[in-house]
Amino acid sequence: MARTFFATMAVALLLSGCSKDPMLVSGQDVFTKYCATCHQQDGKGISGAFPSLYDSEWVSGDKGRLIRLVLRGMQGPIVVKGETYNNVMTPHSFLTDEQVASVLTFVRQEFDNDADKVEAGEVAVVRASLTSDELYIASELENLLGIPSLEIPE
Ligand code: HEC
Q: 143 CA to middle of ligand 1, Å?
């Protein structure tokens, strides 16, 4: 039963991946599957439980922080648009570099955000730099900015 379900899902995923603009459309797919449960399909979240991604400094601000947040998840307290959230965002390290890049490019260009895209290579570098898979504490993550240097030391 479960096997048939996963096989069907795999075929559906393969089919839905064909012939589309790789970044935005697949980003929307990833969003619908993995983020909308909490942040809602319209990105507005649920007041008091899941913060809005609209016009969000977390979304359109530093990319390194945003990638870390998605890979390792985070727990509050955090203040978004004047409202305090003290909840848990689960880690999404099971997503591929391409999926993280496309979903973040999508949210950075939707929901009244207007920021540049995120590349799969940037996700790979941040992922490789992580030394733990524990949830970030929001106040700790707030200051973890930037994509680590892409240069390979000699
Ligand atoms: C299980 C529910 C859940 C899922 C799934 C989830 N989030 Fe979150 N997210 C949260 C919660 C809760 C917070 C606030 C955490 C806190 O209280 O510290 C948050 C915070 C955020 C923030 C920072 C605050 C803001 O509103 O800008 C961003 C950005 C974000 N999530 C993006 C995403 C993206 C992108 C995905 C999908 C890859 C995702 N989230 C999936 C629950 C979730």
A: 17
